[in-house]
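Anyone? Bumping this.
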Amino acid sequence: MTDAVTVTDLVVERGHRRVLHDLSCTVPAGRVTGLLGPSGSGKTTLMRALVGVQRVRSGTVTVLGEPAGSPGLRHRVGYVTQAPSVYPDLTVRENARHFAALYGRGTRAADDALAAVGLADAAGQLVRDLSGGQQGRASLACALVGEPELLVLDEPTVGLDPLLRVELWERFHALAAAGTTLVVSSHVMDEAGRCDRLLLLREGRLLADSTPAQLRAESGTDDLEESFLRLVRAQQEVAA
Amino acid sequence: MSATTAVLSPRLTAATTARVLRQLRHDRRTIALMVLLPSLLLGLLYLLWVDLPVSPFDGVGLTMLGVFPFVVMFLVTSIAMLRERTSGTLERLLTTPLSRLDLLLGYGAAFGLAAAVQAVVTVTVATTLYDLDIAGSPLLVVLIAVANAVLGVALGLLASAFARSEFQAVQFMPVVVLPQFFLCGLLVPRGQMPGWLQAISDVLPLTYAVEALQEVGRSAAETGTMWRDVGIVAGAAVLALALAAGTLRRRTS
């Protein structure tokens, strides 16, 4: 299996605080990799480093064979921030068409992306009139529209009802099956089970690079939340 | 690959212009304010002086035709850009093939077009309803108004980099606009200013915009001074856009 992303000894500081400590990890191509950890563990910072908008102190991030943030990567990588980053004063369709235009795609691609996130019926509505969950999906559609090879999604399922959450995860796996590499962050451990691979972050360090099955087997519990807690405790004992 | 590494792509600049104009289209009240407010304010000035034996309206009114687009576009742009920064759309745009220059020129073109509409309406109203006397072509007044608007856009884009909130952004308006307005030669002729103030006035772009308008106001033929002044205003706008591009960092902490 080839790696879509290779992170080596990444150090990031924000203000005077070190957010990522010598982090090294890889992301397999054509899979859904979950980036899990509590709030403040460095998930968003790592994702920003992958898409090349994070100033890094040291270390390297290689994405699809090029340094993260290279001009050549800008039509190959899609990024969806945690807060919906779409224009509230445009309609859903206008937003999708704008980002389609930036990626050199037509209006057809925009309509397809809206259908993919279940927003075809709301296409004519202004984004500011949508619910929070719909705004998040509009934001996702604006990344899907570029058909990126690597899709980086920061907590895409927050605020979604269970049905939509399941549908989106099915969509993620369909994209992966078609060859897209996905990095999806979440602080909800029950979503960890839906990932092909897991990167567990805690306080800016990689706690585990594993799969759901492996994690369950090693910790001796089916509950991934519990697995995570046992890992944390085990590490604290080692530290002590 | 060549398309994505381009410093400037006319297609992506046009996409940005279209997007900004669409945002404007959904905001009818802003359009109404933008198009009508200068005419109404100019009407107030006209009525203020209409009964006086010697009215300064021709000079002041003409100058205001250049000041309005400058002030309005400065404010609108600095708020629009601040919104891009705080909403996360700017960060997102910077991960797409859109270059920083595409974004800034896209904004300049969109608000420049809006300013052209504003100027056509205001000049028409001023010359028909308020008897504003312009010796030269009204189209030149529109051209200077658009150059001023683009200057306002460029300075607004630049100022937004130093504003962390809307409260700060709006307060940059008096900082950037009022000194230029005081020193442009309208309140006191430039020749009667203390030397050091005149020296400051010499490096402020609004001075040249106002001089260009005065040239059009008093001379039926296009003057070399007028074209030189328009060139200076356009050059100042390009300089401000370049500085604004420098403040747009793709990577932030």
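Late reply, but here is one note on the structure posted above: Residues 77-147 of chain A form one domain.
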